[in-house]
Design a protein that fits this description.
InterPro entries: Aa-tRNA-synt_II, aa-tRNA-synth_II, aa-tRNA-synth_II/BPL/LPL, Asp-tRNA_synthase_2, Asp/Asn-tRNA-synth_IIb, NA-bd_OB-fold, NA-bd_OB_tRNA. One of its GO terms (biological process) is aspartyl-tRNA aminoacylation. The protein is α+β, with helices and mostly antiparallel strands. Helix content is about 35%, strand content about 25%. The protein has 3 domains: about 75-175, Beta Barrel (OB fold (Dihydrolipoamide Acetyltransferase, E2P)); about 180-215, no CATH class; about 220-360, 2-Layer Sandwich (BirA Bifunctional Protein, domain 2). The chain has a 5-stranded mixed beta barrel. It has a 3-stranded mixed β-sheet with strand order 7-11-12. Helix 6 (about 215-240) crosses helix 8. The longest helix has about 40 residues, at about 10-45.
Length: about 375
Amino acid sequence: MVDNKPPEGAQKTESKKALKKEAKKAEKAQKKAEHKGSNQKENVAVEEDVSAGKYGNLPLIQSDPSSIQRIFTYIKDLNKSLAGNTVWVRARLHTQRARGKQCFIVLRQREFTVQALVNVSDTVSKFMVKFSSSISKESIVDLEAKVAEVPSGVAGCSQSDVELVVSQIWVVSASAPQLPLQIEDASRPEKEDEEGLNIRVNQDTRLDNRILDLRTPTNQALFRLEAGVCRLFRDILTKKGFVEFHSPKLFQQHPRGGANVFTVSYFKGSAYLAQSPQLYKQMAIAADFEKVFTVGAVFRAEDSNTHRHLTEFTGLDLEMAFQYHYHEVMLTIGNLFTEILKDYAISTVLKSIWLANSILPNHLPSWTHH
């Protein structure tokens, strides 16, 4: 009879392998238990978040009268006189950068900017700081913060003498994580800066994403400059006894003027876009209005690539009867320009001009008012 009992050495080898397997199983179980324990600790830490209920994403605003009605402060009104006060601000998140237990945020409203600070403290947790640093640029946020005076000033912000110490931050409307252009790149001056960044946004990208491009301080200032000139043009001439009228923009017949016109389809016939309100101004003077003006679009079919020959622009036109000499008209126009420039020299719009001039120094004329 054959004995199938394995040799004694083989038994020892198998027992060693079994011991190794058991040791590995025990090690895996220990690691699993440690990992589970660490997760439990993290969950406890989240539960003990001191900033819970002070940050996050707000539900969709649906004109609900029962929702909280906060009183917001405009960024342009933030100054040293509000130091120590707690305010609510709704603005776009322009930029942010996290540094350790702090997150610095630049908020933007139109052309005005202010710095906000989210700092770990007894009332602000690291989770709130992490949330603040993860908000996508150009999102609209609500912040509750205390206004703090900054003696050294904040470079790059219009409200440089104050900053906001944040106690609450809520995302009202989140933007896409990836934008086709960055506002800070589109806002960068055109002049070459060898030491700074040379990132530029080309014109095609700007025009394809015009909504984003219009958010830059330069475009904000230029549009407000145009609106201010039109407002002053109307106000000054109205005080001088002028009457505003609105001339037609479609002509039935070719006006036969000095400029070419655009032809458009008009039902079964053709019509022409107005190249000037001149005819209607003269008709108003002959109709005893004496002094008239109009602000409106002018269309001229001029195939030109220069910025001085636009196919569509806003015209500021006036017409008046004079008593003895055409110098009366010239004096009226001269006084009009003088009053417009004087008003800009003493108004808040000057700040918009300065912002635009700092970005595009070669695109705006400069003047000194005495």
